[in-house]
Write the C-alpha cells for this entry.
Amino acid sequence: MNDIQIQDSLLITPALLVPLLPLIGFLINGLLGKFLPKAITGWIGTLAVLASFVCSVYIFNNLASTQSVNIDLFNWIAFSNINIGFGFLIDPLTVTMLLVVTGIGTLIHLYSIGYMHDDEGITRFFTYLNLFIFFMLLLVMGSNYLVMFIGWEGVGLCSYLLIGFWFKNNAYNNAAKKAFVMNRIGDLGFLLGMFFMLFYFGSLDFGTVAQQAQTLAPDSTLLVAITMLLFVGAMGKSAQLPLYTWLPDAMAGPTPVSALIHAATMVTAGIYMVVRSNILFALSPTTLTFILIIGVATSVFAAVIGLLQNDIKKVLAYSTVSQLGLMFAALGLGAFSSGMFHVLTHAFFKAMLFLGAGSVIHALHGEQDIRKMGGLRKLIPVTYITFFICSLAISGFPFLSGFFSKDEILAHAFEQNKTVWIILSASSFLTAFYMFRLVYLTFSGTFRGTDETKKHIHESPLTMTVPLVILTILATLGGLLGLPEVMSHTHKFGEYLSSVTGASAQYLHPHEKVSHTMEIVLMGIAGVGAIVMIALAWFKYVKKAEQPANDQELKGLSKVIANKFYVDEIYDVVVVKPITILSDLFLVLVDKLFIDLIVNATAWVVATTGKTVRLIQTGNTGLYIFAMVIGMMVLFVIRMFI
Amino acid sequence: MENTLQVVPQNWYLLLSTFLFCIGVMGVLFRRNAIIILMCVELMLNSVNLLLVAFSAYRGNNDGQVFVFFIMVVAAAEVAVGLALLMSIYRNVASTDIDVLSKLKW
C-alpha cells in the first residue's frame, strides 16, 4: 500500500511535464518565432514533443496497470454545491493515449521539418502543431469532463487553424470553417450532456459521475439522455454519420496535419471519450445500440465512397471515416478495449499512410490526383515499400496489426449479432479493395503525368523517410500487443486496460464467447477475404491496367458514389440554403425595414433639432447673460411655489 | 452680549444685500463694457458675502465669517484671471465692448 503511495507522488512531476513541454514549445515559437531562424523552429517544436514523449514513456514504465493517479491542481469553479476542480487523471487508458499522441506526434513533427521546409509559414505551422499537442494532452489527461472539454475545444480550434493553414486559398478557408461549424454541432451535444451531469449528479468528475450513474436503474431516461448527448459530441469530433462531411474536406490542410489530427489523434477523441465513460454507456444499452447502428452505417457508407475517389488524400480520408465507424461499432458492441486497440493500430498505419501520401505529393510537387500518378514504385522506393506494407496492415492482411485489431472487433460482432458481422466484414473487404486500388494506381504501371514533373521526382529527405519506416515497423508489429486468445493465453492490451474497461463488464448484456475453433475460422475468413480483394484490385488495375474514368464519363450508380452520394449537396439544400434564404428575409424585413428605420429616425430627429436650436446661439454675450438670469429667476420661482 | 455687528438690525443687512445684488444683476444685464460687467459680478459676490457675515454674527457661529475670507481669496484669484482675459481681448480687438465679441457662434 505504502509502495503505491510513493509511486503516486513520483509520477506527478512527469505527468505535469507532459502537457507543459508542448505548451512551452508553443510559447517559444509563437512569441519568439519571429526572431528565430526558420530552420530552428521546427526542431524546437519536435524536441518539445519528444521530451513530452520521454515523460510519457517514464509514466508508462512506472504506472502499474491497476493504478490510477489523481492529480488535483486547483479548485477551478466553486459555488453553492458545485465544485469543479482542475486536475489530471493518469491511468492505463490515459497512458495509452499519451503514448499515441506524443509518440506519433514526435514522428509527425520530425516529418514536417522536411515536408514544410520551404514554406514561409513554417514557424506558424509548428506553433499550431505544438498547441494542438498541448490541447490533445489536456483532453486525454483531464480528470473531469470540463478539463476534457477544454482540450476538446482546443483541438477543434487547432484543427480549424491548420486546415486553413494556407489561408490565401479561399476553398481551404471554407473547408476550415466547415470543420469548425460541424464540430460545433457536436460540441453542443457534449455541452448539454455535461449540464445534465452537473444538474443531476452535481459533479463532472469521471469517478463521481460513474459512481452516481451506478445508483440509477440501467437504461433509465436520464442515462440514455446523457450518453446520447455525449455521443453526439463524439459524432462531430470523430466524423460519424451524419456529421462526417467535414473530415474529407479537412484534407485541405498540409498532409502532416491530416496524419496527426485527422487520422491518428483528434478524430479518435470521440472514441476515447466513450471509453472513458464506459460505465455510463454500458448502463444505457439503448445508446449502445444507437452507436452500433451509426458505427456500422458509417463504416460501410464511407468505404463505398472511398471506392471511387481519385484524390489520394480523399481516399485516405474516407478510409479514416470508415475505420472510425468500425471503432464505434466495437464500442456499440460493448467491446471497449477492442475499440481502443483499433485506435492504437489505426493510429500507426493511418498516420503512416497519410505521411506516405504526403511523400508522394511532395515528390510530385503538389499533385494529388491518382489519375496523374502511376509507376512511382521505382522512383520513390522507400515510400512505396512502407506504403505497401501499411496498406496490407489496414486491409487486414494476416498477422499485421490491422488484422488482429479488426479481427477482434469482428469476433465480438459475430458473438452478438451475425448481421453486424456480415456488414462489418463487407466494409473491411471494401477497405482492402480501395486501398490497393490506391496503391496500384499510384505506384504500378507507367507514369501518367507530364514529363516535366517526372524529371523532378525524387525520394523524400531523411527527416521524412525515418518516420515512415518507424511507423511501418509499429504498424507491422503493433498487433502483437493484442494477440487473440487462440495464439496467446492473455490479451496484453485488453489486460492493460482492464482496470478502466473492466468495471463496466457486469452491466453489459452477457453473451457466449466464440470457441477457439470458431475464432480461427473467423480469422481465416477475414484473412482470405482481404487477400481475395487485394488480388481483385491487382487484377483490375495492374493486369488489365484499368484507369479510373474521368468525372464526365461516369454514369448511374458510380457517378452517385464518385460524387459522395451528393451528401454535401443535400446538406446544402436542406440546411444551408434555407438558412441563407431566412437570413435574406430577415435582412430585408427586420434589418432594413425595422432596425434601420429606428436608427435612422433617431439620427434624423437629433440632426433636425440641432439645426433648429443652434440658431439661438448668436454669439451675443449680453443675450447669454440675460438668458442665464431669466433661467435663475425661473428656478427661484419654481422653488418658491413647489 | 451684543457684538458690534448686532447694533444694526438684521433686516437692514438683508435689504442692503438685496439692493447691492440687484445693482450687480442690472449692471451685468445692461452694461456693455466687460470691465464694468466684471465689477458687477464682484458686487453680487460681495453682497452675498455681507449677508454671510451678518447671519454668522447673529447666529453666534463664526464659521460664516471664516468662510468669507476664503471666498475673498478665491474671488481675488478669479478677478486676476478675468482681468488677464480682458487684457488679451483688448489687445486683439482694441475694445472691451462685449458686443464686438460675437464670433463664437454656429
Observations:
- The two ends of chain B are 61 Å apart (CA to CA).
- Chain B has a mean pLDDT of 87.
- The CA atoms of residues 3 and 57 of chain B lie 8 Å apart.
- Chain B touches chain A at residues 25, 28-29, 32, 37, 98-99, 101-106 (CB under 8 Å).
